Amino acid sequence: MMFRKTVTIETRGEEDLIDITDHIRSAIKESGVSDGLVCVFVPHSTAALITIENEPGLRNDLRKALERIAPKNFVYDHNKAWGDDNGHSHIRSSFLGTSITIPFSGGSPDLGTWQQVVLVELDIRKRSRKVIIQIMGE
Fold first, then answer.
1. How far apart are CA 61 and CA 15, in angstroms?
2. Whole-number pLDDT of residue 125
3. Please, are residues 122 and 11 in contact by the beta-carbon 8 Å criterion?
4. How many CB atoms lie under 10 A from the CB of residue 29?
5. How are strands ordered across the β-sheet holding 2-10?
6. CA 62, CA 59: separation in Å to the nearest integer?
7. Per-10-residue mean pLDDT for the chain, 138 residues long?
8. pLDDT at 52
9. Closest CA to 34 of 55, 3, 57, 5
10. What domains can be seen in the chain, in order of their start residue?
């Protein structure tokens, strides 16, 4: 069986971290599928999906790590070409990724005790983001 749901998440802009685990749990329940895989995808080039223990210390550590990986004040060819100053946002998304696949059983995602699925807004402005949740199973 296949089930697909799209949710829209409003972000506050760069480095906003939004826990979407409950959206995933809700979609699994709504699908009626007990066991399978859920693929979560964000179709945007300046957003990402990660799993993390969603607590303040790790959120701050992630922001600092992203600054080390792709600094905002670096000279990006993308910024020169488009003038939108979000070259670092695209690079960060490329490193983090735009999809996650999670197995589930008994109608519940097989996440670790301290693991949540988080949408990471990487663009320099607030955005309306689509998150596609596709479920396969029986």
1. 12
2. 96
3. no
4. 11
5. 2-10, 128-137, 36-41, 99-105, 108-109
6. 5
7. 98 97 98 98 98 96 97 94 94 98 98 97 97 98
8. 97
9. 3
10. 2-137 (2.60.120.460)
